[in-house]
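Still learning. Show one?

>
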Amino acid sequence: MSRQPRTQNVTTEAGEARITWVPAATATTATTAPAPAPRLVLGVSHGAGGGIEARDLKALAAALPAHGVTVALVEQPWRVAGKKVAPAPKTLDTGWRGLWPALAAPGLPVVAGGRSAGARVACRTAAELGAAAVLALSFPLHPPGKPEKSRADELLGTGVPTLVVQGGNDPFGRPEEFPPGAYELAQVPYGDHGFAVPKKSGLTEAQAMEVLTGAVTGWLTSLG
């Protein structure tokens, strides 16, 4: 059987962060082929309005370990402290920098990831921290209804291979609003900022998460 998730508290200059490690599956049974050896770590954080219980983060944690990816679900210090409102971007970056050595400790390449505000953090710090790549889930390209306040520079400046996974109806930036650049973009049809899909779309939440995990799995495999 694969190992069970474990939690690790990490002290940073922004406060105490927490990592929930979901290890890459390593076991075999009489009826299954051997799982691939652990080959990378995906460190992925939540957004400003929720935690690691977000549907997309849970789906990735369930799907990726079977593909040799250890998933590290990161809770920023403000969330661990029980605060309701996320701090300024600079403080979020400080917390992420402080916990990065723990993500790198297994000695594997680390893909920096996050959803929404967490995606911005991963983009802003990827190059300086030596991330192998960036996974940006629901990247908030602009505040809802304010396309003139673009954050595209953060996405375009990662300096490493980058995948954006965006809901087709995300008010923070629909896929067609994203500018050309050296990144890949995958779409979850009809999805909103949390990748929820309306019933009238004909797509179930499970199917939407299959689209998301399939896109991420294929991209991570392409990284080598």
The chain has a mean pLDDT of 93. The CA atoms of residues 167 and 195 lie 6 Å apart. Strands lie at 6-12, 15-22, 40-45, 69-75, 110-115, 133-137, 162-167, 184-188.
